[in-house]
Amino acid sequence: xxxxxxxxxxDDSLAREGLTGGIEAGAPGGVQWRRSGREMNPFDQIAVxxxxxxxxxxxxxxFGVNLALVSPDGKRVVMFEMExxxxxxxxxxxxxxxxxxxxxxxxxNRFLEARRGAQVLRYRCHAGLTEFxxxxxxxxxxxxxxxxxxxxxxxxxxxxxxxxxxxxxxxxIDARPxxxxxxxxxxxxPQRQDDLLDLLELIASRLAQADTHRLAPEPGRTQVQLGxxxxxxxxxxxxxxxxxxxxxxxxxxxxxxxxxxxxxxxASVVEFILRRRVSRARDLLTRTDHTCSEIAxxxxxxxxxxFNRIFRRLEQTSPRQWxxxxxxxxxxxxxxxxxxxxx
Length: 343
Hints:
Helix content is 52%, strand content 13%. By secondary structure, it is of the alpha+beta class. Strands 1-5-4-8-7-6 form a six-stranded antiparallel sheet, with helices on both faces. A two-stranded antiparallel sheet has the order 2-3. The longest helix has 21 residues, at 97-117. The chain starts with a strand and ends in an 18-residue tail after the last helix.
């Protein structure tokens, strides 16, 4: 389980930053960089933090995407388990020179766009796959970018493959062996994509505020404990949840659970639960014609007033307004029920 730096002229880039060294099997988190006369820049400070691996693993476990930490200039990338976690079509495309150039140009243009406006991007790559970039901003400066994706919004159609194939063949790539692999890339529906972006923004916020000591994981079963907590919360989201309940399911104390979420996710347990409930509510508002009153209880809020208040705080709009402006969302005749309550 090694951390990989990939990108052009890595050794020269590190030398310019005053860094020497490399991957050491015995180092915490599998990596250790030594300074030679200069302080590391903010990106390198983040890149060598042991806890970055845990955050990447969390994104993989929950969404099946391999999270990349990218320098603001797009020249350095930190990824874990690259060979194992890459999507099949993208892995094959990287094997040919023309494919690597296409992907690199696409990435660089989007890195520039995200850095220029410090904005979150959800976009289609040159092959029609959905990708995501979330900037890590500290004191108004973009110090790193989080990138992942390589996913379909739904099972790809033959027309979508033809569009992708045309773009590849124009650059001289033999696309015939790639058809099956293209269909094999992971499908992540728009609702799950929203959930992923929520997680990425939490991670970006955590990285922006972190120092080496706070981000470093506790030795032992940190990942297992966090995974148990998240799994328990997801399974019981519509029910009444308390900190002691989640702590017991995770086999940790309440205090340790609170520290774990603050350190690894960058949010309190309560805030994480509320975000997940709002995410479920968005899904129900989109997929079903349930009233907002029904959705409030199906999402675990316990009351319509509480639902409206939290939804408005996180989404800056009411549930009914969110439903009305979302393409394809159900639009039942609810009258004044539930949504007229603004708190």
